[in-house]
Amino acid sequence: MKKIILSAAFLAFAGISAVNASEVKTPVAITVKQDSTTKTPVELKDLPEAVKTTLQSEPVKAWTPVAAFLVTNADKTKYYQIDVKKEAETASIKIGEDGKVIQ
């Protein structure tokens, strides 16, 4: 008899818990912001002459270019991101299409 009473009490408790757990008092809004920046890989040999000239000037020429990307922002501005390496150090340089380094 005790087992039946305990089973009934357990089922009643589980039923109440399930009802309380499923209540949603305030809806949750999920928003996702999308970044409209695109990053396209570019061969180092295909870089514009102005960018190549900048890579050969001081102090940038101490670094060795490893990879290049054409980055287009949401406002349609473009620049080249050049990944460079000097011994164990790595860095990225932003160079505009006109060859000027972007800070």
How is this structure best described in words?
This protein has 103 residues and is of the alpha+beta class. It has a domain at 38-96: Nuclear Transport Factor 2, Chain: A. The protein has two helices and five strands; from the N terminus they run αβαββββ. The chain has helices at 2-21, 49-55; strands at residues 38-42, 64-72, 78-86, 89-96, 101-102. Strands 1-2-3-4-5 form a five-stranded antiparallel sheet, covered by helices on one side. The model has no long low-confidence stretch (mean pLDDT 81). This is Beta-lactamase-inhibitor-like, PepSY-like. Keywords: Signal. Residues 1-21 form the signal peptide.
Oligomer: single chain
For this structure, the CATH topology of the domain at 38-96 is Nuclear Transport Factor 2, Chain: A
Q: Largest beta sheet: what is the strand line-up?
A: 1-2-3-4-5
Number of distinct helices: 2
SSE topology:
Elements: H1 2-21, E1 38-42, H2 49-55, E2 64-72, E3 78-86, E4 89-96, E5 101-102
Antiparallel strand pairs: 1-2, 2-3, 3-4, 4-5
Keywords: Signal
Organism: Pedobacter caeni
Signal peptide: 1-21
Keywords:
103 residues, alpha+beta, Nuclear Transport Factor 2, Chain: A, 5-stranded antiparallel sheet, signal, Beta-lactamase-inhibitor-like, PepSY-like
In short:
Keywords: Signal. The chain is an alpha+beta fold.
